[in-house]
Amino acid sequence: MSQPAVAQALDKLSQRLIEEYWDFYPTAGSRIGRHEYDGRLPDLSPARVRRRLEELRRGLGQLSALSLETFATEGLDPQTFSQQGLSPDQRLSYRLLELFLKRELFNLEDWRPLENNPMRQVGFLNVGGYVRRDYAPLADRLRSATKALGQVPDFMEGLDSSLEPEVGRPVLEMSIESYAGMARFYRVDLGQAVGDFSDRAVLEPFNQAREAAALAVERFVARLQFRLEQAREDFAIGAKLFAGMLATGEGVTATLSELVALGQANLDANLEQLAAAAEAVKPGRSIKETVADIGRRHPSAEGLIPETQDMLETIRRSLVDLDLISVPSEDRCQVMETPTYMRYAFAAMDSPGSLEERATESFYYVTPVEEEWSAQQREEWLSNFNYDTLRIISIHEVYPGHFVHHLHSRYGRPLPLVNRVATSYAFTEGWAHYTEQMMLETDYGAGQPALRVTQLLEALVRNCRYLCSLGMHTQGMTVDQATQFFMDHAYMEELPARREALRGTFDPGYLNYTLGKLMILKLREDFRKERGGDYSLRGFHDQLLSYGAPALPLVREVMLAQPGSAL
Predict the structure, then answer these.
(1) How far apart are CA 319 and CA 315, in angstroms?
(2) Is the pLDDT of residue 1 over 60?
(3) Which of 30, 210, 280, 351 lies at 20 to 30 Å from 62 by C-alpha?
(4) Does the pLDDT value for residue 75 go beyond 50?
Protein backbone atom coordinates (compact mmCIF):
# COMPACT_ATOMS: atom_id res chain seq x y z
CA MET A 1 0.00 0.00 0.00
CA SER A 2 1.53 3.35 -1.05
CA GLN A 3 1.72 6.28 1.34
CA PRO A 4 -1.18 8.13 -0.38
CA ALA A 5 -3.24 4.95 -0.18
CA VAL A 6 -2.45 4.60 3.51
CA ALA A 7 -3.48 8.21 4.10
CA GLN A 8 -6.72 7.64 2.21
CA ALA A 9 -7.42 4.49 4.23
CA LEU A 10 -6.71 6.38 7.45
CA ASP A 11 -9.13 9.16 6.47
CA LYS A 12 -11.84 6.65 5.63
CA LEU A 13 -11.33 4.75 8.88
CA SER A 14 -11.33 8.00 10.88
CA GLN A 15 -14.61 9.06 9.29
CA ARG A 16 -16.31 5.77 10.12
CA LEU A 17 -15.01 5.58 13.70
CA ILE A 18 -16.03 9.16 14.40
CA GLU A 19 -19.50 8.52 12.99
CA GLU A 20 -19.74 5.56 15.37
CA TYR A 21 -18.79 7.95 18.16
CA TRP A 22 -21.52 10.41 17.15
CA ASP A 23 -24.03 7.60 16.90
CA PHE A 24 -23.28 6.71 20.52
CA TYR A 25 -23.03 10.35 21.64
CA PRO A 26 -25.46 12.13 19.28
CA THR A 27 -25.35 15.28 21.41
CA ALA A 28 -21.66 15.63 20.46
CA GLY A 29 -22.52 15.35 16.78
CA SER A 30 -25.28 17.94 17.10
CA ARG A 31 -23.10 20.41 19.00
CA ILE A 32 -20.22 20.21 16.56
CA GLY A 33 -22.60 21.15 13.74
CA ARG A 34 -23.86 17.83 12.36
CA HIS A 35 -27.56 18.50 12.78
CA GLU A 36 -28.72 15.13 11.51
CA TYR A 37 -28.01 14.11 15.11
CA ASP A 38 -30.40 16.71 16.53
CA GLY A 39 -33.20 15.53 18.77
CA ARG A 40 -31.38 12.54 20.23
CA LEU A 41 -30.03 11.72 23.67
CA PRO A 42 -27.44 8.95 24.14
CA ASP A 43 -28.56 5.43 24.90
CA LEU A 44 -26.42 4.59 27.94
CA SER A 45 -28.05 1.27 28.75
CA PRO A 46 -25.71 -1.57 29.78
CA ALA A 47 -26.38 -3.42 26.52
CA ARG A 48 -25.56 -0.37 24.40
CA VAL A 49 -22.44 0.37 26.44
CA ARG A 50 -21.26 -3.20 25.90
CA ARG A 51 -21.75 -2.79 22.15
CA ARG A 52 -19.84 0.48 22.30
CA LEU A 53 -16.94 -1.21 24.06
CA GLU A 54 -16.88 -3.81 21.30
CA GLU A 55 -16.85 -1.02 18.69
CA LEU A 56 -13.92 0.67 20.41
CA ARG A 57 -11.87 -2.53 20.62
CA ARG A 58 -12.66 -3.30 17.02
CA GLY A 59 -11.71 0.23 15.98
CA LEU A 60 -8.37 0.01 17.76
CA GLY A 61 -7.77 -3.33 16.07
CA GLN A 62 -8.55 -1.88 12.66
CA LEU A 63 -6.26 1.08 13.30
CA SER A 64 -3.49 -1.30 14.30
CA ALA A 65 -4.14 -3.46 11.25
CA LEU A 66 -3.78 -0.39 9.05
CA SER A 67 -0.28 0.15 10.37
CA LEU A 68 0.59 -3.54 10.09
CA GLU A 69 -0.51 -3.50 6.46
CA THR A 70 1.76 -0.53 5.93
CA PHE A 71 4.69 -2.42 7.46
CA ALA A 72 4.13 -5.39 5.16
CA THR A 73 3.70 -3.45 1.93
CA GLU A 74 6.33 -0.78 2.52
CA GLY A 75 8.94 -2.99 4.19
CA LEU A 76 8.92 -0.89 7.36
CA ASP A 77 9.98 -1.99 10.80
CA PRO A 78 6.86 -1.87 13.03
CA GLN A 79 8.88 0.00 15.65
CA THR A 80 9.56 2.84 13.21
CA PHE A 81 6.05 3.24 11.84
CA SER A 82 5.43 6.42 13.79
CA GLN A 83 8.53 7.98 12.23
CA GLN A 84 8.35 6.72 8.64
CA GLY A 85 4.93 5.35 7.72
CA LEU A 86 3.08 8.61 7.18
CA SER A 87 3.71 12.33 6.82
CA PRO A 88 4.04 14.26 10.09
CA ASP A 89 0.46 15.56 9.91
CA GLN A 90 -0.84 12.08 9.08
CA ARG A 91 1.12 10.59 11.96
CA LEU A 92 -0.48 13.15 14.24
CA SER A 93 -3.95 12.19 13.00
CA TYR A 94 -3.15 8.51 13.46
CA ARG A 95 -1.86 8.99 17.02
CA LEU A 96 -4.74 11.32 17.82
CA LEU A 97 -7.35 8.82 16.65
CA GLU A 98 -5.65 6.06 18.63
CA LEU A 99 -5.62 8.17 21.81
CA PHE A 100 -9.22 9.25 21.23
CA LEU A 101 -10.39 5.63 21.13
CA LYS A 102 -8.28 4.66 24.13
CA ARG A 103 -9.65 7.58 26.16
CA GLU A 104 -13.25 6.55 25.61
CA LEU A 105 -12.41 2.91 26.25
CA PHE A 106 -10.75 3.90 29.53
CA ASN A 107 -13.72 6.06 30.53
CA LEU A 108 -16.33 3.38 29.90
CA GLU A 109 -14.38 0.32 31.01
CA ASP A 110 -12.19 1.56 33.86
CA TRP A 111 -13.39 4.92 35.18
CA ARG A 112 -17.11 4.07 34.66
CA PRO A 113 -18.71 7.44 35.52
CA LEU A 114 -22.15 5.99 34.81
CA GLU A 115 -21.74 4.07 38.05
CA ASN A 116 -20.10 6.66 40.28
CA ASN A 117 -20.29 10.21 38.91
CA PRO A 118 -23.71 11.57 37.84
CA MET A 119 -22.12 14.96 37.16
CA ARG A 120 -20.49 13.54 34.04
CA GLN A 121 -23.92 12.97 32.44
CA VAL A 122 -25.76 16.20 33.21
CA GLY A 123 -24.39 17.91 30.10
CA PHE A 124 -26.30 15.52 27.85
CA LEU A 125 -29.53 17.11 29.10
CA ASN A 126 -28.70 20.65 28.01
CA VAL A 127 -30.89 21.51 25.03
CA GLY A 128 -30.09 25.23 25.21
CA GLY A 129 -28.24 25.11 21.90
CA TYR A 130 -31.49 24.48 20.06
CA VAL A 131 -32.81 27.90 21.04
CA ARG A 132 -29.48 29.73 21.31
CA ARG A 133 -28.00 29.09 17.86
CA ASP A 134 -29.92 30.19 14.75
CA TYR A 135 -28.86 27.39 12.38
CA ALA A 136 -32.42 26.60 11.22
CA PRO A 137 -35.91 28.11 11.58
CA LEU A 138 -36.89 28.29 15.24
CA ALA A 139 -39.89 26.02 14.66
CA ASP A 140 -37.60 23.26 13.38
CA ARG A 141 -35.17 23.73 16.28
CA LEU A 142 -38.00 23.59 18.80
CA ARG A 143 -39.26 20.37 17.24
CA SER A 144 -35.79 18.87 17.69
CA ALA A 145 -35.67 20.12 21.28
CA THR A 146 -39.11 18.62 21.90
CA LYS A 147 -37.91 15.28 20.58
CA ALA A 148 -34.86 15.35 22.82
CA LEU A 149 -36.87 16.42 25.85
CA GLY A 150 -39.26 13.56 25.22
CA GLN A 151 -36.40 11.13 25.81
CA VAL A 152 -35.43 12.62 29.19
CA PRO A 153 -37.69 10.41 31.37
CA ASP A 154 -36.21 7.18 29.99
CA PHE A 155 -32.72 8.70 30.13
CA MET A 156 -33.12 9.53 33.82
CA GLU A 157 -34.41 6.06 34.63
CA GLY A 158 -31.36 4.61 32.94
CA LEU A 159 -28.99 6.85 34.90
CA ASP A 160 -30.61 5.87 38.17
CA SER A 161 -30.39 2.15 37.45
CA SER A 162 -26.72 2.44 36.44
CA LEU A 163 -25.56 4.16 39.64
CA GLU A 164 -23.86 1.99 42.24
CA PRO A 165 -25.52 1.95 45.69
CA GLU A 166 -23.00 4.33 47.22
CA VAL A 167 -21.64 7.44 45.54
CA GLY A 168 -19.12 9.84 47.09
CA ARG A 169 -21.02 12.37 49.19
CA PRO A 170 -19.50 15.56 47.69
CA VAL A 171 -20.14 14.29 44.15
CA LEU A 172 -23.68 13.37 45.13
CA GLU A 173 -24.35 16.77 46.69
CA MET A 174 -23.06 18.61 43.62
CA SER A 175 -25.11 16.32 41.37
CA ILE A 176 -28.27 17.12 43.34
CA GLU A 177 -27.63 20.83 42.89
CA SER A 178 -26.82 20.49 39.19
CA TYR A 179 -29.78 18.31 38.22
CA ALA A 180 -32.15 20.49 40.26
CA GLY A 181 -30.81 23.42 38.26
CA MET A 182 -31.49 21.55 35.04
CA ALA A 183 -35.10 20.99 36.10
CA ARG A 184 -35.49 24.72 36.73
CA PHE A 185 -33.87 25.40 33.37
CA TYR A 186 -36.46 23.23 31.62
CA ARG A 187 -39.40 24.66 33.49
CA VAL A 188 -38.51 28.36 33.57
CA ASP A 189 -35.52 29.52 31.57
CA LEU A 190 -36.08 27.40 28.48
CA GLY A 191 -39.60 28.78 28.16
CA GLN A 192 -38.32 32.34 28.45
CA ALA A 193 -35.62 31.67 25.86
CA VAL A 194 -38.12 31.16 23.01
CA GLY A 195 -39.27 34.77 23.37
CA ASP A 196 -42.46 35.72 21.54
CA PHE A 197 -42.63 32.60 19.37
CA SER A 198 -46.35 31.85 19.09
CA ASP A 199 -46.93 28.86 16.79
CA ARG A 200 -49.13 26.79 19.09
CA ALA A 201 -48.74 23.62 17.02
CA VAL A 202 -45.03 23.70 17.82
CA LEU A 203 -45.11 25.44 21.19
CA GLU A 204 -47.65 23.26 22.99
CA PRO A 205 -45.78 19.95 22.48
CA PHE A 206 -42.55 21.76 23.42
CA ASN A 207 -44.06 23.05 26.65
CA GLN A 208 -45.52 19.66 27.51
CA ALA A 209 -42.15 18.01 26.90
CA ARG A 210 -40.41 20.64 29.05
CA GLU A 211 -42.68 19.94 31.98
CA ALA A 212 -42.46 16.16 31.64
CA ALA A 213 -38.67 16.39 31.43
CA ALA A 214 -38.53 18.65 34.49
CA LEU A 215 -40.63 16.22 36.49
CA ALA A 216 -38.41 13.30 35.45
CA VAL A 217 -35.28 15.16 36.49
CA GLU A 218 -36.86 16.09 39.81
CA ARG A 219 -37.69 12.43 40.46
CA PHE A 220 -34.04 11.62 39.82
CA VAL A 221 -32.99 14.38 42.22
CA ALA A 222 -35.25 12.88 44.91
CA ARG A 223 -33.56 9.52 44.44
CA LEU A 224 -30.14 11.14 44.71
CA GLN A 225 -31.24 12.81 47.93
CA PHE A 226 -32.34 9.43 49.29
CA ARG A 227 -28.89 8.06 48.45
CA LEU A 228 -27.31 10.69 50.72
CA GLU A 229 -28.31 8.52 53.69
CA GLN A 230 -25.88 5.82 52.59
CA ALA A 231 -23.36 7.94 50.72
CA ARG A 232 -19.71 7.16 51.35
CA GLU A 233 -17.46 10.05 52.27
CA ASP A 234 -14.69 8.91 49.94
CA PHE A 235 -14.90 10.33 46.42
CA ALA A 236 -11.28 9.88 45.29
CA ILE A 237 -10.69 8.01 42.05
CA GLY A 238 -7.24 6.87 43.24
CA ALA A 239 -3.76 7.04 41.77
CA LYS A 240 -4.28 4.34 39.13
CA LEU A 241 -7.36 5.95 37.58
CA PHE A 242 -5.83 9.41 37.90
CA ALA A 243 -2.76 8.29 35.97
CA GLY A 244 -5.01 6.59 33.40
CA MET A 245 -7.05 9.77 32.99
CA LEU A 246 -3.89 11.72 32.12
CA ALA A 247 -2.37 9.01 29.94
CA THR A 248 -5.44 8.42 27.77
CA GLY A 249 -6.87 11.94 27.93
CA GLU A 250 -3.70 13.98 27.54
CA GLY A 251 -0.92 11.60 26.55
CA VAL A 252 0.89 12.51 29.79
CA THR A 253 2.84 9.70 31.43
CA ALA A 254 4.80 11.59 34.12
CA THR A 255 4.62 10.07 37.58
CA LEU A 256 2.25 11.61 40.09
CA SER A 257 5.16 12.65 42.31
CA GLU A 258 6.73 14.45 39.35
CA LEU A 259 3.44 16.21 38.67
CA VAL A 260 3.08 17.31 42.29
CA ALA A 261 6.62 18.70 42.35
CA LEU A 262 6.03 20.57 39.09
CA GLY A 263 2.79 22.11 40.33
CA GLN A 264 4.23 23.09 43.70
CA ALA A 265 7.17 24.82 42.04
CA ASN A 266 4.83 26.84 39.80
CA LEU A 267 2.63 27.78 42.77
CA ASP A 268 5.64 28.97 44.76
CA ALA A 269 6.93 31.02 41.83
CA ASN A 270 3.54 32.68 41.29
CA LEU A 271 3.17 33.52 44.99
CA GLU A 272 6.58 35.18 44.97
CA GLN A 273 5.73 37.16 41.82
CA LEU A 274 2.36 38.21 43.28
CA ALA A 275 4.03 39.68 46.35
CA ALA A 276 6.37 41.70 44.13
CA ALA A 277 3.57 42.87 41.83
CA ALA A 278 1.34 43.92 44.76
CA GLU A 279 4.24 45.86 46.28
CA ALA A 280 4.71 47.63 42.94
CA VAL A 281 1.04 48.72 42.91
CA LYS A 282 1.32 50.43 46.30
CA PRO A 283 4.23 49.71 48.63
CA GLY A 284 3.50 48.65 52.18
CA ARG A 285 -0.05 47.44 51.64
CA SER A 286 -1.21 43.84 52.04
CA ILE A 287 -2.16 41.80 49.01
CA LYS A 288 -5.80 41.72 50.16
CA GLU A 289 -5.86 45.51 50.44
CA THR A 290 -4.37 45.81 46.97
CA VAL A 291 -6.93 43.41 45.52
CA ALA A 292 -9.78 45.32 47.19
CA ASP A 293 -8.48 48.58 45.74
CA ILE A 294 -8.29 47.07 42.25
CA GLY A 295 -11.86 45.81 42.63
CA ARG A 296 -13.22 49.30 43.22
CA ARG A 297 -12.32 50.37 39.67
CA HIS A 298 -15.04 48.85 37.50
CA PRO A 299 -17.64 49.74 34.85
CA SER A 300 -21.12 50.78 35.82
CA ALA A 301 -23.93 48.27 35.44
CA GLU A 302 -25.06 50.09 32.29
CA GLY A 303 -21.55 50.36 30.90
CA LEU A 304 -20.49 46.75 31.41
CA ILE A 305 -21.41 45.44 27.94
CA PRO A 306 -20.34 48.43 25.78
CA GLU A 307 -17.09 48.90 27.70
CA THR A 308 -16.28 45.22 27.34
CA GLN A 309 -16.84 45.48 23.58
CA ASP A 310 -14.50 48.46 23.37
CA MET A 311 -11.93 46.65 25.49
CA LEU A 312 -11.91 43.73 23.07
CA GLU A 313 -11.04 46.02 20.16
CA THR A 314 -8.16 47.47 22.12
CA ILE A 315 -6.77 44.04 22.94
CA ARG A 316 -7.22 42.91 19.33
CA ARG A 317 -5.25 45.91 18.05
CA SER A 318 -2.46 45.05 20.47
CA LEU A 319 -2.22 41.52 19.07
CA VAL A 320 -1.74 42.95 15.60
CA ASP A 321 0.54 45.83 16.58
CA LEU A 322 2.81 43.62 18.69
CA ASP A 323 2.76 40.85 16.05
CA LEU A 324 1.91 38.21 18.65
CA ILE A 325 -0.36 35.92 16.63
CA SER A 326 -2.27 35.90 13.36
CA VAL A 327 -5.93 36.82 13.63
CA PRO A 328 -7.17 34.98 10.54
CA SER A 329 -10.55 36.67 10.15
CA GLU A 330 -12.30 39.99 10.56
CA ASP A 331 -15.04 38.16 12.46
CA ARG A 332 -15.91 39.64 15.82
CA CYS A 333 -17.68 37.98 18.69
CA GLN A 334 -20.79 39.69 19.99
CA VAL A 335 -20.59 40.82 23.60
CA MET A 336 -23.96 40.31 25.23
CA GLU A 337 -25.59 39.66 28.54
CA THR A 338 -25.50 36.02 29.54
CA PRO A 339 -28.89 34.43 28.79
CA THR A 340 -30.95 33.92 31.93
CA TYR A 341 -30.68 30.14 31.66
CA MET A 342 -26.84 30.31 31.62
CA ARG A 343 -26.20 32.74 34.47
CA TYR A 344 -24.43 30.18 36.56
CA ALA A 345 -21.39 31.38 34.56
CA PHE A 346 -19.49 34.58 35.35
CA ALA A 347 -18.41 35.03 31.74
CA ALA A 348 -18.15 32.56 28.89
CA MET A 349 -17.23 32.23 25.23
CA ASP A 350 -19.83 30.54 23.03
CA SER A 351 -18.31 29.70 19.66
CA PRO A 352 -20.04 27.54 17.05
CA GLY A 353 -19.18 23.91 16.52
CA SER A 354 -16.23 23.44 14.21
CA LEU A 355 -18.46 21.83 11.56
CA GLU A 356 -21.29 24.37 11.86
CA GLU A 357 -22.14 25.86 8.46
CA ARG A 358 -24.93 28.34 9.15
CA ALA A 359 -24.92 29.67 12.72
CA THR A 360 -21.26 30.67 12.71
CA GLU A 361 -21.54 33.70 15.02
CA SER A 362 -19.74 33.71 18.35
CA PHE A 363 -21.02 35.17 21.60
CA TYR A 364 -19.03 36.47 24.54
CA TYR A 365 -21.42 36.29 27.46
CA VAL A 366 -20.91 38.62 30.42
CA THR A 367 -23.29 38.11 33.33
CA PRO A 368 -24.85 41.42 34.43
CA VAL A 369 -26.18 42.55 37.79
CA GLU A 370 -29.75 41.54 38.50
CA GLU A 371 -32.39 44.24 38.88
CA GLU A 372 -33.60 42.91 42.22
CA TRP A 373 -30.14 43.03 43.83
CA SER A 374 -29.35 45.51 46.59
CA ALA A 375 -26.81 48.24 46.08
CA GLN A 376 -24.25 46.25 48.06
CA GLN A 377 -24.83 43.10 45.98
CA ARG A 378 -24.48 45.09 42.76
CA GLU A 379 -21.21 46.61 43.94
CA GLU A 380 -19.82 43.24 45.02
CA TRP A 381 -20.69 41.73 41.65
CA LEU A 382 -19.25 44.58 39.62
CA SER A 383 -16.05 44.50 41.67
CA ASN A 384 -15.46 41.08 40.11
CA PHE A 385 -15.65 42.86 36.74
CA ASN A 386 -13.06 45.47 37.65
CA TYR A 387 -11.18 46.74 34.62
CA ASP A 388 -8.04 44.67 35.23
CA THR A 389 -9.83 41.40 35.92
CA LEU A 390 -12.16 42.00 32.98
CA ARG A 391 -9.12 42.37 30.73
CA ILE A 392 -7.60 39.11 31.95
CA ILE A 393 -10.93 37.30 31.49
CA SER A 394 -11.27 38.79 28.00
CA ILE A 395 -7.74 37.71 27.09
CA HIS A 396 -8.61 34.17 28.21
CA GLU A 397 -12.02 33.98 26.55
CA VAL A 398 -11.50 36.08 23.41
CA TYR A 399 -8.17 37.66 22.37
CA PRO A 400 -6.02 35.63 21.95
CA GLY A 401 -7.66 32.83 23.97
CA HIS A 402 -10.65 30.70 23.04
CA PHE A 403 -12.07 32.94 20.29
CA VAL A 404 -8.80 33.29 18.38
CA HIS A 405 -8.25 29.54 18.80
CA HIS A 406 -11.68 29.04 17.22
CA LEU A 407 -10.78 31.40 14.33
CA HIS A 408 -7.62 29.43 13.59
CA SER A 409 -9.58 26.18 13.55
CA ARG A 410 -12.28 27.61 11.26
CA TYR A 411 -10.24 29.85 8.95
CA GLY A 412 -6.73 28.42 9.19
CA ARG A 413 -5.44 25.52 7.18
CA PRO A 414 -7.94 22.69 6.60
CA LEU A 415 -7.97 20.26 9.50
CA PRO A 416 -8.61 16.52 9.32
CA LEU A 417 -11.89 15.49 10.90
CA VAL A 418 -10.20 13.74 13.81
CA ASN A 419 -8.34 16.95 14.71
CA ARG A 420 -11.69 18.74 14.98
CA VAL A 421 -13.32 16.05 17.10
CA ALA A 422 -10.56 14.68 19.36
CA THR A 423 -9.79 17.80 21.36
CA SER A 424 -7.69 17.94 24.50
CA TYR A 425 -8.86 19.51 27.77
CA ALA A 426 -5.27 20.52 28.56
CA PHE A 427 -4.69 22.09 25.12
CA THR A 428 -8.01 23.97 25.03
CA GLU A 429 -7.92 25.41 28.54
CA GLY A 430 -4.13 25.41 28.75
CA TRP A 431 -3.94 27.65 25.66
CA ALA A 432 -6.43 30.17 27.04
CA HIS A 433 -4.70 30.20 30.42
CA TYR A 434 -1.26 30.46 28.79
CA THR A 435 -2.33 33.56 26.86
CA GLU A 436 -3.01 35.43 30.13
CA GLN A 437 0.63 35.06 31.14
CA MET A 438 2.00 35.47 27.63
CA MET A 439 0.29 38.82 27.10
CA LEU A 440 1.70 40.16 30.37
CA GLU A 441 5.22 39.07 29.31
CA THR A 442 5.06 41.36 26.25
CA ASP A 443 4.96 45.14 25.95
CA TYR A 444 1.20 44.88 26.43
CA GLY A 445 1.75 44.38 30.15
CA ALA A 446 4.56 46.89 30.60
CA GLY A 447 4.06 49.30 33.50
CA GLN A 448 0.77 47.73 34.64
CA PRO A 449 1.42 46.07 38.00
CA ALA A 450 -2.32 45.95 38.87
CA LEU A 451 -2.96 43.95 35.71
CA ARG A 452 -0.09 41.68 36.68
CA VAL A 453 -1.66 41.17 40.11
CA THR A 454 -4.95 40.05 38.61
CA GLN A 455 -3.22 37.74 36.13
CA LEU A 456 -1.27 36.10 38.94
CA LEU A 457 -4.40 35.70 41.08
CA GLU A 458 -6.05 33.85 38.19
CA ALA A 459 -2.93 31.69 37.85
CA LEU A 460 -2.99 30.89 41.57
CA VAL A 461 -6.58 29.68 41.37
CA ARG A 462 -5.48 27.28 38.61
CA ASN A 463 -2.40 26.27 40.65
CA CYS A 464 -4.71 25.35 43.52
CA ARG A 465 -6.98 23.37 41.21
CA TYR A 466 -3.95 21.45 40.00
CA LEU A 467 -2.59 20.59 43.44
CA CYS A 468 -5.99 19.99 45.05
CA SER A 469 -7.01 17.65 42.24
CA LEU A 470 -3.90 15.58 42.84
CA GLY A 471 -4.28 15.94 46.61
CA MET A 472 -7.96 15.00 46.83
CA HIS A 473 -7.79 12.08 44.42
CA THR A 474 -4.39 10.55 45.16
CA GLN A 475 -3.18 11.85 48.56
CA GLY A 476 -6.18 11.79 50.89
CA MET A 477 -6.84 15.54 50.95
CA THR A 478 -10.36 16.34 52.19
CA VAL A 479 -12.76 18.93 50.79
CA ASP A 480 -12.21 21.04 53.92
CA GLN A 481 -8.46 20.90 53.45
CA ALA A 482 -8.79 21.79 49.77
CA THR A 483 -11.07 24.72 50.66
CA GLN A 484 -8.46 26.04 53.07
CA PHE A 485 -5.77 25.54 50.41
CA PHE A 486 -7.64 27.83 48.00
CA MET A 487 -8.16 30.39 50.76
CA ASP A 488 -4.50 30.35 51.80
CA HIS A 489 -2.89 30.34 48.36
CA ALA A 490 -5.38 32.05 46.00
CA TYR A 491 -6.68 34.71 48.42
CA MET A 492 -10.26 33.50 48.03
CA GLU A 493 -13.15 33.89 50.45
CA GLU A 494 -14.53 30.70 51.96
CA LEU A 495 -17.63 30.28 49.76
CA PRO A 496 -15.88 30.49 46.36
CA ALA A 497 -12.97 28.47 47.75
CA ARG A 498 -15.34 25.66 48.77
CA ARG A 499 -17.03 25.77 45.36
CA GLU A 500 -13.63 25.35 43.72
CA ALA A 501 -12.79 22.43 46.02
CA LEU A 502 -16.12 20.75 45.34
CA ARG A 503 -15.62 21.04 41.59
CA GLY A 504 -12.46 19.01 41.95
CA THR A 505 -14.36 16.09 43.49
CA PHE A 506 -16.27 15.41 40.25
CA ASP A 507 -13.86 17.02 37.76
CA PRO A 508 -10.34 15.86 38.62
CA GLY A 509 -9.33 16.97 35.13
CA TYR A 510 -9.52 20.62 36.18
CA LEU A 511 -5.80 20.41 36.84
CA ASN A 512 -5.50 20.70 33.05
CA TYR A 513 -5.58 24.52 33.04
CA THR A 514 -2.17 24.66 34.68
CA LEU A 515 -0.93 21.37 33.22
CA GLY A 516 -1.68 22.56 29.69
CA LYS A 517 -0.12 25.97 30.28
CA LEU A 518 3.07 24.42 31.61
CA MET A 519 3.30 22.04 28.63
CA ILE A 520 2.82 24.95 26.21
CA LEU A 521 5.49 27.01 27.97
CA LYS A 522 7.97 24.13 27.75
CA LEU A 523 7.08 23.49 24.12
CA ARG A 524 7.62 27.17 23.37
CA GLU A 525 11.06 27.17 24.97
CA ASP A 526 12.13 23.97 23.20
CA PHE A 527 10.77 25.32 19.89
CA ARG A 528 12.70 28.57 20.40
CA LYS A 529 15.93 26.69 21.04
CA GLU A 530 15.54 24.55 17.93
CA ARG A 531 14.59 27.47 15.66
CA GLY A 532 17.31 29.80 16.86
CA GLY A 533 17.31 32.97 14.77
CA ASP A 534 14.22 31.83 12.86
CA TYR A 535 12.08 31.83 15.99
CA SER A 536 9.24 34.29 16.48
CA LEU A 537 6.44 34.30 19.02
CA ARG A 538 3.87 34.72 16.26
CA GLY A 539 5.37 31.82 14.32
CA PHE A 540 5.16 29.58 17.36
CA HIS A 541 1.56 30.52 18.12
CA ASP A 542 0.39 30.14 14.53
CA GLN A 543 1.98 26.73 14.14
CA LEU A 544 0.68 25.53 17.50
CA LEU A 545 -2.92 26.46 16.66
CA SER A 546 -2.68 25.01 13.16
CA TYR A 547 -3.28 21.48 14.51
CA GLY A 548 -6.57 22.10 16.28
CA ALA A 549 -6.35 21.07 19.94
CA PRO A 550 -4.62 17.66 20.13
CA ALA A 551 -2.95 16.25 23.21
CA LEU A 552 0.16 18.38 23.63
CA PRO A 553 2.71 15.53 23.78
CA LEU A 554 1.53 14.58 20.28
CA VAL A 555 1.98 18.16 19.06
CA ARG A 556 5.60 18.08 20.24
CA GLU A 557 6.23 15.19 17.87
CA VAL A 558 5.35 17.32 14.82
CA MET A 559 6.74 20.67 15.99
CA LEU A 560 10.13 19.52 17.29
CA ALA A 561 12.98 17.56 15.77
CA GLN A 562 13.77 16.20 19.25
CA PRO A 563 10.42 16.01 21.06
CA GLY A 564 11.70 14.94 24.47
CA SER A 565 9.49 15.17 27.53
CA ALA A 566 6.33 17.28 27.46
CA LEU A 567 7.03 18.42 31.03
Answers:
(1) 6
(2) no
(3) 30
(4) no
